[in-house]
Amino acid sequence: MGWEMWLGVAAVAISAVALTVAMTVWSQQRRRRRLDPPLAVTEVLAEDVGQLIAFVANPSKPAVANLERTVRRVCAEADLPEPLWLETTIEDPGVGQTREALARGADIVVAVGGDGTVRAVAEGMVGTGKPMGLVPLGTGNLLARNLDLPVADPDEALRIVVAGADRVIDVGWARVLEFAQPDGAARDPARTGTAGAGAAGDDTTGDTPGTGEADEAVTGTGTAGAGDALPEQDTETAHIFLVIAGLGFDAAMVADADATLKARVGWVAYFVAGIRHLHGRRLRAQIQLDDTPPVHAKLRTLLVGNCGKLPGGITLLPDAVLDDGILDVAAIDTRGGVVGWAQLFGDVVMQGFGVRNDLPAKIGRIDHARAKRVRVRVEGGEQAQVDGDLLGRAVELEAWVEPGGLVVRTA
């Protein structure tokens, strides 16, 4: 048999093997198609049309009306689905709108407003695994500053929402365990209930009552003036905070900030309000960190932070990190009147540059600590706040961290 004949036999054999393999693969694919149901139309579309973005907006902000048109244009230019646009109300500062957006299939929910709107949206997003975006339009814009997001450029903030990266961060929770009576005396409420998501109030950082921002009826605890207390105080609801919770001078400063001045000069109004409290009394506090024994201290304010950057380039908690699973605590005290406050302010500015003055004889000082849970009790009660949102006059306050509770969209 010549070599041509052998070549022909080999070609036929190879063709037969190839045909057998092809028939086997085709048969298996056909069987798999019969066994596996086809993809739902919605699943196919979800891959094709991109992510659905929902915006929860505070309509009291002047820029919101124009921003809605920009949002729809940006989403169209990015070939994204028509966005959801939901506005906050007096009754609901954003928690309900966020949950509605998620129920309607939103992949990202964006807080459009001040710190109160951010808190409310964050409460609805905690534990969902879906990212929260920010378009900051408030006075403080605390979380946006700590995430290095633009606080004066809504268009750039929108670009980050559409094309940014996701980051997992911790969240803090605070609960007032005991409120002060109107005359400053403490009362003993039932201390029942567990830590969990409560109804988030909205911030007092330049936001207009009646639209979900700075509305005390929303929080269930309300905003008490100096020396006052509300008749119905909620000792079971936990209030989320993303930046700093505080008891004492800082909360009193927030409570006394003039709304008109805030609208004109922004966060500077808080420093103006703080001047009125420079000669206020020092607090006698009992502080417990985690399971350690309580310690007694005299101080002006106690801060419990998830991160520490404030407006004006001020860093109160230089060691605070958003995703380290722990809270940073600062006990702040001054003596000697204005001189003590001046020294304290100098120390705050310097620690922002990594320089600390730990001399023991200082008349203005910041003592730092770290813990996963903090409990503080003060004689007579003092104003308490979470991210600039007042909780009322608290005798005893508890705060704790929820590690990795929230996903945020960053640059």
List the helices and strands and how they pair.
Layout: H1 3-35, H2 41-49, E1 53-57, H3 64-77, E2 84-87, H4 95-103, E3 108-113, H5 115-125, E4 131-136, H6 142-146, H7 154-163, E5 165-179, H8 216-219, E6 239-241, E7 244-248, H9 249-256, H10 259-265, H11 268-275, E8 283-289, E9 295-299, E10 301-305, E11 327-334, H12 338-351, E12 364-371, E13 373-386, E14 389-410
Parallel strand pairs: 1-2, 1-3, 3-4, 4-14
Antiparallel strand pairs: 5-6, 5-14, 7-10, 7-13, 8-9, 8-13, 10-11, 11-12, 13-14
Helix pairs in contact: 3-7, 4-5, 9-11
Descriptive account of the structure:
With 411 residues, this protein is an alpha+beta fold. Helices cover 32% and strands 27% of the residues. It has helices spanning 3-35, 41-49, 64-77, 95-103, 115-125, 142-146, 154-163, 216-219, 249-256, 259-265, 268-275, 338-351, and strands spanning 53-57, 84-87, 108-113, 131-136, 165-179, 239-241, 244-248, 283-289, 295-299, 301-305, 327-334, 364-371, 373-386, 389-410. Strands 1, 2, 3, 4, 5, 6, 7, 8, 9, 10, 11, 12, 13 and 14 form a 14-stranded mixed beta sheet that branches. α3 (64-77) packs parallel to α7 (154-163), α4 packs across α5 (115-125) and α9 crosses α11. The longest helix is centred in the N-terminal third of the chain and has 33 residues, at 3-35.
